[in-house]
Amino acid sequence: MKKTIALLTGGTTGEWVVSVKSAATIAQHMDTDLYEVYKIMLNDKGWFYEPADSVKIEVDKNDFSILLQGRKIKFDGVFIAIHGSPGEDGKLQGYFDMLNIRYTTCDALTSSITMNKGYTKAIVNGIENLKIAKSVQIFKNGNYDIAKIKSDLKLPYFVKPNSGGSSIGMSKVKHADDLEAAVDKAFKEDNQVLIEEFVSGREFSIGVFKAKGEIIVLPTTEVIPANEFFDFEAKYTPGATKEITPGAMSEEEFARVHQIVKDIYMKLNCRGVVRIDYFLEHETSNFYFIEINTIPGQTATSFIPQQVAAMGLTLGQFYTDLITETLG
């Protein structure tokens, strides 16, 4: 008998546009022999199921169900495809936990912690062979000293909103005099800001997921932006970034990276598919952790679909593996 799956898309942040594209890819590739899929849109106006041939049907949030032609439909599981809030920060996960409905992502605690770059780095710090750029975390209206930050950290700096996505509000600061302006820009996006030393290295992004009880590492993608760093424009402008999947690593780097990312997955108690971004430092090949994304993009050009293809898996099989692991 087919399992009934809610594919949840949209969201309440600027990332909703990417979420809608991700959900379109997922819907296109899910195995309709195994699953009856209902795409649910969540936005500022409400939560709705929108059949092709009728008006929007509002979701009953008391039990996360819909009433379709007099039939009450409840779900065996939820495929969450919402980037940013409330899909990636633990809010929806907590809601589904209370209703005892299974979902494809990390749990509420892991989701909320990993939205905070500074807190995540504090937890993964100490994993063997993982290094972290020296950084300072500051709070809006907090008691921070810009002069002390300038003396403690070496130029250039990366300044980024602590919980933001898609590199919005991020700056690379080459001159100490420009730090205040970069901090102001980041504070427009978040009330916590991370200022960290720049690591000169090759940038990679790698998918990790769990299937049949085993942690599986996808082929990595090397990211070579035409811009100075992988900013919003580089991420979403076709041709602005060269992406090589699988990225070139030596045998030693390959083995070390695979062990580190599996350790990150376990240490953060991840579930479903996540994407880990990292540098391999130019001089040393040291692994520097950048961040983890617990609901990575699934658009046609996103890293995860590229990596799934490079591994020789179909997206249909990949999504079936994720849902099977979710439903148990």
UniProtKB/TrEMBL annotation:
Xref: PROSITE patterns: ATP_GRASP, DALA_DALA_LIGASE_1, DALA_DALA_LIGASE_2
InterPro entries: ATP-grasp, ATP_grasp_subdomain_1, D-Ala_lig_Van_CS, D_ala_D_ala, Dala_Dala_lig_C, Dala_Dala_lig_N, PreATP-grasp_dom_sf
Active site: 15, 166, 302
Keywords on record: ATP-binding, Cell shape, Cell wall biogenesis/degradation, Cytoplasm, Ligase, Magnesium, Manganese, Metal-binding, Nucleotide-binding, Peptidoglycan synthesis
Residues that bind Mg(2+) 2: 291, 293
GO cellular component: cytoplasm
Domain ATP-grasp span(s) in chain numbering: 124-324
EC number annotated for this UniProt entry: 6.3.2.4
Domain of life: Bacteria
Annotated cofactor note: Binds 2 magnesium or manganese ions per subunit.
Database matches in Pfam families: Dala_Dala_lig_C, Dala_Dala_lig_N
Residues engaged in binding Mg(2+) 1: 277, 291
Catalytic activity field: 2 D-alanine + ATP = D-alanyl-D-alanine + ADP + phosphate + H(+)
Pathway: Cell wall biogenesis; peptidoglycan biosynthesis
Coiled-coil stretches noted in the UniProt entry, renumbered to this chain: none
Cofactor section: Mn(2+); Mg(2+)
Subcellular location: Cytoplasm
GO biological process terms, semicolon-separated: cell wall organization; peptidoglycan biosynthetic process; regulation of cell shape
Main subcellular localisation: cytoplasm
A GO term, aspect molecular function: metal ion binding
Entries under PANTHER family matching the protein: D-ALANINE--D-ALANINE LIGASE, D-ALANINE--D-ALANINE LIGASE B
Function: Cell wall formation.
Protein family per UniProt: Belongs to the D-alanine--D-alanine ligase family.
Protein's recorded name: D-alanine--D-alanine ligase
Organism: Pedobacter endophyticus
